[in-house]
Amino acid sequence: MSQLHWEDFTPGRAFEHGPRRLPRDEMIAFAAEFDPQPMHLDEAAARETMLGGLAASGWYVCCILMRMCVDAFLGQSASMGAPGVDEVKLLRPVRPDDELMFRATVLETRASKSRPDMGLVRFEFVMSDMQGRQAVVLITSLMIGRRQKGDAA
Amino acid sequence: MSQLHWEDFTPGRAFEHGPRRLPRDEMIAFAAEFDPQPMHLDEAAARETMLGGLAASGWYVCCILMRMCVDAFLGQSASMGAPGVDEVKLLRPVRPDDELMFRATVLETRASKSRPDMGLVRFEFVMSDMQGRQAVVLITSLMIGRRQKGDAA
Questions:
Q1: Cβ atoms within 10 A of the Cβ of A140, count?
Q2: Any chain A CB within 8 A of the CB of B116?
């Protein structure tokens, strides 16, 4: 795949990647470092919570999502970063050794107000389990280089 | 500090933690695993980008924020998780070995519609540098256990 630029991200275009398994040991090690709460660390303690058993930190699933995004298309794109994240919905708990699919769909695009060499692409990113149930939905805009400099919007 | 419950999170109450240094080697190792883009990995490549030099993945800063949140108050609270994240703003690049402060401020609270044993607390989380400049602002609602079960809202 040749490098993707802003012009290539037309609304409705989608990119998929996966499945990727989220190993129990990595899931727990991540939580121990970044989100050390009982429901992410300890099976017995987790059973006492509303999650009903050990569940991944939402941040771990977001980080795996980001890696799958880079592997799916962003690593072959003229990526210039992101101004933030619009929204993250954690819809279902992710369990040790679950396998997840990544899907990115272009929602809309717009030229940058200030930089003629880049545009913004608003995406919906979804992580789903192998039964097609959505676990995480994330909406964000990425800054992507333009193939041809244009007028600022 | 005795365990904090939903009733303790009154609007305006704030919790601070830090500073914490974000070491260059950890910042790069995180990016190599979860966000392998040139501006997060390689000093020379990063200088060619609009960031003007190596900068942390926004996800790394969010994960450090989460850890500082647990250390500041959430680890001593009746935390029941989160339904997602409302918004993340990445306002300034975070550089290798930068030191950041964490501050959480309660914006509003409400009882759960479905569960009399918990409530939601909407927070603003801010990561700032030692000059007081905001690097990341994150708005999210956390689910927190109630000390006394109430009527559902």
A1: 22
A2: no
| DSSP three-state, residue B72 | helix
Mutating which of B26, B48, B62, B138 best tests the A interface, going by the most A Cβ atoms within 10 A?
Answer: B62
Top-tier CATH class for A6-21+56-145: alpha beta
Judged on CB neighbours under 10 Å (0-12, 13-18, 19+), A63 is buried
User: Looking at domain B6-145, which of 1.10.3470.10, 3.10.129.10, 3.20.20.120, 2.40.10.10 is its CATH number?
Assistant: 3.10.129.10
pTM: 0.96
pLDDT per residue over B14-71, tens digit each? 999 999 999 999 999 999 999 999 999 999 999 999 899 999 999 999 999 999 999 9
DSSP reduced 3-state for A7: helix
From chain A, pick out residues whose CB is under 8 angstroms from the CB of B63: 33-35, 59, 63
Q: Is A3 on the interface with B (CB under 8 A)?
A: no
- 8 A C-beta contact, residue A14 and residue A104: yes
Pick the closest to residue A138 from B87, B80, B72 (CA basis): B87
CB contact under 8 A, A83 and B66: no
B81 interfacial to chain A (CB closer than 8 Å): yes
Strands B87-90 and A99-111: unpaired
* CB–CB contact B66 A74 (8 Å): no
ipTM above 0.90, yes or no: yes
* Distance set, CA B42 to CA A4, A108, B4, B82 (Å): 21, 31, 43, 34
Measured distance CA(A82)–CA(A95) in Å, rounded: 29
